[in-house]
Amino acid sequence: MEFKIPKSAEAPLAEFVKLADDQVKQLVEAVCHARPTLLPTQFAQGVAARAGLSEEKVVEILSMFGGMYIARIDAEKTLEEFVSDLSSALQKSGNEGLQARNWLAFEQSVKSILACEDSLGITAKALELLMDHEHTLHAARIVTDIRYIFASDPTQRPKAAVIAHMLNLVYHEIDDLKEIYLALDASDLRHLKSIIERAEAKEANLKAMLEQTGVIGLET
Length: 220
Fold this sequence. Notes:
The protein is of the alpha+beta class. 58% of the residues lie in helices and 17% in strands. The protein is built from 8 helices and 3 strands; from the N terminus they run αααααααβββα. Strands 1-2-3 form a 3-stranded antiparallel sheet.
């Protein structure tokens, strides 16, 4: 199967190709020694600080390499095969912005970054694992209002009122955003608060267990 470079990867690759040799070396070292995180942006921020490079540029480049890391695994190719295919595709592309000054050095640098299993690898896999759900939450809010109860004669002052809450959940579904509205009352709020506190307690318990086993617990 022909190796295809996604359009979204072209700009980050061009930025990587433009880096000076010493900048590439600093980037590789920073990636391999960085602590893995749950979110790629957090990971890139730490790498940028260590490598002395622009945070915006590093976020773009490492997001691309994170995608490459997962793509190589999905393609079931060795690191050498994947990087060789990438290099060949870039050379054949005819895009001047994607042409390395030294292809051997370029390939070695890409291999070194993609070989950072305990930093880039964990971060790339973590986000994919976190997002591997049919629906993931994008945003949430609760709108609270008063609803009056009128007498038979609607021109008279209301006789009573109820306080109502509307929970709005915006969630991801494949490549789309959808939302749902759920009506809540005071008892529902107390129940939600209780189960959230219980979930937080379970999370703290699991974090402590992970620390005891030496497994890194990733969080935002």
